[in-house]
Amino acid sequence: MQIREALDLHDHSWPQVLIMEDEASVAKGLGMVLSEEGYQVDLAMTGRSALDSFNQKIFDLLVADLRLPDIDGMEVIKQVKRRRPDTEVLVITGYSTVTTAVEAMKLGASDYLSKPFTEDEFLAAVKGALVTREFPETEAVPPLEPLPEDLLRLAEVMQQIRRQFVGEQQEVITVLQKVQNALGYVPTEALQQVADFTGMTEAAVYGIATFYERFRLAPVGRHVVKVCRGTACHVKGADKILHEIAHRYKLSPGPTRRDRLFTLETVACFGSCAIGPVVVVDDKVGADMNAEKVEKVLHTLAREDVHHDPHS
Fold it and tell me: Which fold has domain 223-304?
């Protein structure tokens, strides 16, 4: 399924993307990948030329390399988000660290890809960044920001890990899984502590955590709602369900509400087209769903949740 169908942009002009990358071959290659999917793509080889492009044209997405010959990529992102806060940002870099990933997310980047990455990974990240534009007014937890109680729990978990493991590099996946099992996600502080414990670089641990889909680097809600956006579900009204959930519960796909009640996610396809639209709530599959059915399920979960403020 092409991105045009998934985004359902109606009368809006087709997404405009600016790729800011100083390596011409990389920029042209990424541009070809997006052009083949139907995107309108411009290229900028320097930070200044990227900012000039934004002065002349409105872009939906900035694909930003961080190491440029003139201006630091972070500074470009900062200026773009200040001038045009609705522009989504996807960071691509061959010099990734946990610190730069966190800084980019705090500046407003939607995603962060470490080079090298595959074409599928790139397209998925672009699609995910642009999908968030459909849900601009939501109340989400900033990426990679733990709550104080998370840090206290992390300290306990790391003490247990140090007693159970010797700190070898081959243990890193198991250790990360232990952290996620305890917290529901792997915060930045955990990545740093796991790196120190295993003797790996922060970038290497971050690369492992982002490579495996099982790991979450941002807080997750007590209830996870997944809406299928495959072709069959899309035709049967999945987007209407998605928008109803988003507006009723102040959610957007990806981030978690401040009260951590729900996390809303989209899935390319569950492989259950015959029973669509499919909505999965806490691993329970709902078949032939509509907005009313989903609302009933979520309302019940919210009412029964002891942490939930009904006025939020």
Answer: Glutaredoxin (3.40.30)
